[in-house]
Amino acid sequence: MYNFLDSTEARRGKHIIWAANRSVMENIGFTRRKSGKKSRSHWDLFLRVMRIFEFLLKITGNYHKGYGNAKNIKVNELSLKYPNLPDAFNGFRILHLSDLHIDSIPGFTAMLIEKIKPLKFDICLLTGDYRRDRAGSFNHILKPLKILSKYIQAPSGVFAILGNHDTYLMAQYEKESGMELLVNESVEIIREDQKILITGTDDPFDFYTESALICLETRGYDFKIAMVHTPEMANWASANKYDLYLCGHTHGGQICLKDGFPLISHQFEGKKFNHGLWNIGKMTGYTSRGAGVSGIPIRFNCPGEITIINLINGR
Ligand SMILES: [Fe+2]
To answer: Residue 85 Cα, ligand 1 centroid: separation in angstroms?
Structure first.
């Protein structure tokens, strides 16, 4: 069971204002970062460089290996202990999905479903990037998302945020896709009269607004989870006493050297945020390597992942 902090009317009003802002940012082709940096997107240039890299992989016979790696999604399971976790949430299992880019590889939805089917979880949290491209049509991903949604339904709900590959226009299909979209807002998850709070922001990598800061200024809960596409809001979430911060975006590098060192991570917060567990103060963060791929459909030394996080009450 869950309960949004804002009324339906208030949420609708906020979403309309957010969509108007987001549409301007998407259409002028400038990115806006938390650092205040505002610049033209370099994605097209990056893609051109990737095409050359793809060509080199093909002529050296390495492309198929990388493509096979991209289809080999790992299930990561971890347990996190918190002394302040309400008793009713002891053993609460989160399915964390990130960076599905569900249209990057033919048949990818079926591959994901095969991995998810045997898993037991109480809630599903999706931290953005549902399509391959950053612009253009997204109609072709609605059907696969709808099919996937049947397998990720959970007693405490399915909550999603947008990434930098997503458009505000997707918001109108949230119900159809079987997900509740969190746009700079919070929802209470209720179990046996006890509550935890989940806050989801809009993507701060390309579409940062102060609303992403403000929505994290929450008080009055024993346990709080932040969902943000990138690690960029982690310091602020920690300062506002969030316990768990879930993000993705980096794909763990997607193409890494043998020791796991990424050639490119698309984040500027520091090496520790590239993938896996990290801490800021008492807050634990987790950067998913993501299930899918973008740019070119390959992975090296960096498998895609879906994650089960088991919350435990303890020290
Ligand atoms: Fe992504």
So the answer is: 30
